[in-house]
Amino acid sequence: MKKTFIKTKNVKRFVALMDELQKLSPNIPKLALVYGDHGLGKSQAIQWWADKNDSVYVRATQGMTSRWLLSEIAEELGEEPYWHTQETFELIENYLRQNPKIIIVDEIDYLIEKHTVETLRDLHDRTACPIVLVGMGSADKKLARYPHLVDRLYKTLKFEQFNETDITEILQQITDLEFTPDAISYLATRTNQFRQLVKLINKIEKLSDTNKIEEIDEYTLKGILNERQNLKALQKVG
User: Fold this and answer.
1) Is 153 strand, coil or helix?
2) What is the tens place of the pLDDT at every residue in 157-190?
């Protein structure tokens, strides 16, 4: 499997959103929500973007309070947080006013449950820095209980599950194996999530290498993915 970051349709849409947020005029709210089901590559895409850009990335955890969240942000800025929440907030505010950065907070579902997400709204209002909230598939519905925050959302982006076209593009980027159209169609019935697809490709590559298979058609793919039929399918190919 090729060691490369896969720029899926979801990733391209996310990059476009980040570029757009950073170019907005000062008077436009710059909160954004990125959400979607697990296994679609959200966290990988966000971490990849954060590593390549001057930004702050924080991953929320269960039970995270405002003090804890602000401490994490301060440390990401290279600052020492104070004991008192208000002092840490002012520290971050002063820093971002002088050195604006985009802030990305992953797993915001935890913050919604603890009402800690309101702290991010306050931070956005005081600094005008873009803040991207990243959550699971129902994050948009959970945020609906915070109308003052929702009113500030510039845009929402949902990571979508993959179709055959997406899977074809991913295969071209991630492996040298050739897949026939019927094999791709069958693969699309087995998974529409990035994480599962990568695991399947890894399995297919290992068995194909062992059995000297360079092109995967539907029959061979069914044999590879069904352990009980592996031998029968591969014998037919041979």
Assistant:
1) strand
2) 999 888 888 888 888 888 888 889 988 888 888 7
Residue keyed to tokens 């915070």: 146
63: region left, alpha or beta (phi > 0 left; psi from -120 to 50 alpha): left
* Of residues 15, 23, 31, the one with CA closest to residue 155: 31
**134 DSSP 8-state letter:** E
Cα–Cα dist 183/238, whole Å:
18
Q: Which domains does the chain have, with CATH numbers?
A: 9-158 (3.40.50.300), 164-237 (no CATH)
pTM above 0.85, yes or no: no
Do 233 and 227 contact (CB within 8 A), yes or no? no
Q: Write out the DSSP string of 178-211.
A: EE-HHHHHHHHHH--SHHHHHHHHHHHHHHHHHT
**Sign of CA pseudo-dihedral 198, 200, 206, 208:** negative
pLDDT tens sequence across 116-138: 999 999 999 999 999 999 999 89
Neighbour-count burial of 69, counting CB atoms closer than 10 A to its CB (0-12 exposed, 13-18 middle, 19+ buried):
buried
* Cβ contact 203:190 at 8 Å: no
Question: Could you tell me the pLDDT band of residue 79, with boundaries at 50, 70 and 90?
Answer: very high
Structure tokens at 109: 């579902």
